[in-house]
Amino acid sequence: MTTARDPNPADETEADATEGDDRAVGRGFLRSLAVFAMFAIILGAFFYLRPRAAPTPGSSAPVAPPAPSPAAAVGPLPGVLFRDVAAEAGVDFTHESGARGGKLLPECLGGGVAIVDLDRDGALDLVFTQGQPLEPAQGDPAAGKGGIRIYRNATEFGGPVKFERVAVDEALLPNVYAMGLAAGDVDGDGSTDLLVTCVGQDALFLNRTPAYGAIAFERAPLPDENEWGTSAGFLDVDTDGDLDAVIANYVEWTPAIDRSVNFTLDGIGRAYGPPTGFEGSMLTLLLNDGTGGFRDATAASGVAVKNPVTGGPYAKALGLVFVDADRDSRTDILVANDKTPKFLLANQGVTDGVPRFRDIAVDSGFAYDRDGNATGAMGIDIAWPRNSTRLAIAVGNFANEPSSLYFAGAPRDESRIPALADEALGQGFGAPTRPLLTFGLLFGDFDLDGDEDIVQANGHLEPDIARVQPSQTYAQRGQFFVNRGGDATPLFVEAERGSCGALETPSVGRALAMGDLDNDGDDDLVLIDLAGKARVLVNEQRTGNNWIAIGLLDPASFGAEITVAAEIGGKQVVQRRVLSPTRSYLSQNEPVARFGLGDATGAVRVDIDFPGGTRQTETLEAGKRYRIRKPEYVSLNP
């Protein structure tokens, strides 16, 4: 049977029209969706691609809430009281940053200080580096007045600390932006010479001061290098009996390069930024001919570490410290790099008259932080803070990056490469340092109780940082971390607020150096406030603890390790120090190994391990300063 078709043609036509309308509506709806999606994409692209401020790493970048410090469970401990005596002592040095609104990078990183006896009178003098405008306007009174400033120690026996400005200092190195200092006897005449790092060519000054006479220097030539030098130090790297020079260099920089990088905080005006937009540099290694003449051995020695990807220079170096990290009786070089991996340049010995170094930082665990990042590393120092065989390396980092505290474990294999792990968070040093930006950093036994504490100088790069990150400030307080001693965990606790006096007064802290300025046995501090007055922070501890201080008369003795064994608090304690003034940031410290002895009295055993493996042992009285020469020692006390 066949079903008859509906004979009504109108119905068929109506049905076809309805289906067409539905298709038209569908097509219109899809077109609307497409238009809406297109507008959404355009709007999203506008907000994503619009010009906006580049964040300062570790500052305006979003960060996770900080973990609580393990030290919080311990409670605050009193620190050491420091009093700023700069004004009454006659130290009127004011640092000139050179900032004139152009926001050029060197303006935010200086200046340096050295604590050193220049006239061989047994009292410590002060040398400061001075900046100047990098692009001065006509008539600028600071133009051409960079270089160094020298203050001679004029303290009378038993009197308060006094200094006198050396009249000829400004003429020694005019019209340079000076940054850091190295101090040591490079020509073997018994006087301490100075190397000054600069934005541009560095400068060497041989000390021609007669004993107890007026301070005088003679400028000596250095190989042309014209880098941006930062920290520097002297060390006998080729084991020939004289001091060679190691110079940290920052980035490839000119005002034109700086303006092309054009870093901003808010997308509007220029700001001081990280070094990530600049090409790296390399360390400079200069070998001494024995008379204070130097030749460049950078390329042949292996200190010119290259980026493994680009092959270009990898260093953006700010801090230096020297220690035998792999325990092979050769002194190694540790470098704090800013936003590139840190270096651990292992000394491989001398071949064909040239010292050889190999970077083992990645293999050792030192190159990066615990999260695998290259930090904004500034200042650096080393110690054995548990009075054990475990070396510790402290590194000051950028804001919102905790300062690092690496401890060395046993080598992983026969290579002797130390296994370094950042234990800052677990040892009470991480959380309290995270909000602050650290430059100068030092280990020191400031309360003379037999273990080394930590001090930090803090201050931001950018004066306007609070505008984009309200939790940050430009000037920041200094910090003191009390060493709890022995096997305590956490090892460090930040000192109770208000217990450290002028150290806690906010500053734009940069260089930080230590030495016994008032000759009372404990370490005092000198702190550089960027574009501000230098601070002379006298240690006012009144513990009554004993001490001993040991220097070496041999010009090439830097890098020697000195241990002191004494009974403190009824326990036999063995402390270790490296004799080297090069540590912290842009600084040179008093060239002695100072040990707190707590309640120990009488004689103590002193072992001196010279680079190369020779040892000298002495029994010396506590409460005195010594300068030792193989195989004899000379007491500096009547």
Q: Can you describe this structure in just a few lines?
A:
With 638 residues, the protein is mainly beta.
What portion of the residues fall into strands of 2 or more residues? 25-35%
Largest beta-sheet details: 5 strands, mixed
Poorly predicted spans: 1-30, 32-37, 39-63
Gross morphology is: globular
* Helix content class: 10-25%
Task: Give the class from helix and strand content and strand pairing.
Answer: mainly beta
Distance between the termini: 137 Å
Give me the Rg, rounded: 30 Å
Mean pLDDT: 90
Q: Helix tally? A: 7
Strand order of the largest sheet: 5-4-3-2-32
What is the number of E strands?
A: 37
Structure description:
It contains seven helices and 37 strands. The protein is globular, with a radius of gyration of 30 Å. It starts with 8 loop residues before the first helix and ends with a strand. With 638 residues, it is mainly β. A hairpin with an 8-residue loop joins β24 and β25.
Strands, helices and their partners?
Blueprint: H1 9-49, E1 82-84, H2 86-89, E2 113-116, E3 125-130, E4 147-153, E5 163-165, H3 169-172, E6 178-184, E7 193-198, E8 203-207, E9 217-220, E10 229-235, E11 244-249, H4 255-261, E12 284-288, E13 294-296, H5 298-301, E14 317-323, E15 332-337, E16 343-351, E17 354-359, H6 361-364, E18 380-383, E19 392-395, E20 404-409, E21 419-422, E22 438-444, E23 453-458, H7 465-468, E24 479-483, E25 492-494, E26 509-515, E27 524-529, E28 535-539, E29 546-552, E30 561-568, E31 571-578, E32 587-588, E33 593-598, E34 603-609, E35 615-621, E36 625-629, E37 632-635
Parallel strand pairs: 2-32, 29-36
Antiparallel strand pairs: 1-28, 2-3, 3-4, 4-5, 6-7, 7-8, 8-9, 10-11, 11-12, 12-13, 14-15, 15-16, 16-17, 18-19, 19-20, 20-21, 22-23, 23-24, 24-25, 26-27, 27-28, 29-33, 30-31, 30-34, 34-35, 36-37
